[in-house]
Amino acid sequence: MKFLTFALIIVFVNNLSASCPSDPAEWCLNIENAKSCNIVKQCWENVWSIKRRQSDQIEYTGLVNLTLYYETLCPDCKNFMSSQILNAFLTVKDIMNLTLVPYGNAKETWRNETKLWQFECQHGSDECWGNLLHTCVIYSKPKTDDHLPFILCMEGNNVDDIQTSATKCGLKYNVSIDEMEKCMFSRLGNGLQHEMAAKTEILNPPHKYVPWITLNGEHTDEIQKQAENNLVDLICKTYKGTKKPEACNQK
Fold it and tell me: Which residues form the Saposin A-type domain (predicted)?
């Protein structure tokens, strides 16, 4: 593969699993191959990022607005983000505005004695910590290109506890957890998390589960089903512009 140097291939080869294609030209061909070869980060940095920069030269109008409501330790959310969101961002990100809302099925209570919101999360305090971390990362790095790789890294980690996962992914994607905790344990972070709660609670129809998808502000059972089955196809069909990414022309 022309984007990968011989030196990189030597580094990768020790991490290959049995399901990894034997031909290096296929390692970064798609998400599934990259994951089976344990080189998603390397493909992102050395192959897919180059393709994205090349596609940035094309101007797209009338972008599709996709919003994902999720919580950090939800297994279905982690699976959806590691597959559908990742694939869509790498192939059709130029025709969509992606917004992440990390709150999900949490509950909030206003504490008048502290003048702060208190949060309870479906999967416990670790999830509240993760939701708040993602909220502060999104605030600190508002561009999707800057915060999404870190968030997808965390959501794709099913081995480590959430704080260990955050530390590892922070080192990979230049996110200082110490700096993020300054936001998390402040009135700023508390207010930012309340904003995520408010965005979730005003959904119409109200969300019944997570991940919960809205497309151009609309949620239907059909939109949800299509997003879970093939998000790239849904984005391509919804986009009304004349110029489309290569992925939209593939069957």
Answer: 13-53
Q: Which residues pair with 120 in a beta bridge?
A: 107
Q: What's CA 143's distance to the chain center, in Å?
A: 12
Cβ neighbours, 10 Å, residue 242: 8
Pairing of strands 116-120, 64-70: unpaired
Whether the predicted model's global pTM rises above the 0.85 cut: no
For the segment 73-98, what is each residue's pLDDT rounded down to a tens digit?
999 999 999 999 999 999 999 999 99
- Total domains in the chain come to 1
Q: Measured between alpha carbons, how far is 51 from 64 in angstroms, rounded to an integer?
A: 20
Q: Is 24 within the bounds of a domain?
A: no
Residue 40, in any domain of the structure: no
Q: pLDDT by residue (tens digit) across 210-226?
A: 999 999 999 999 999 99
- Contact indicator for 91, 248 with CB cutoff of 8 Å: no
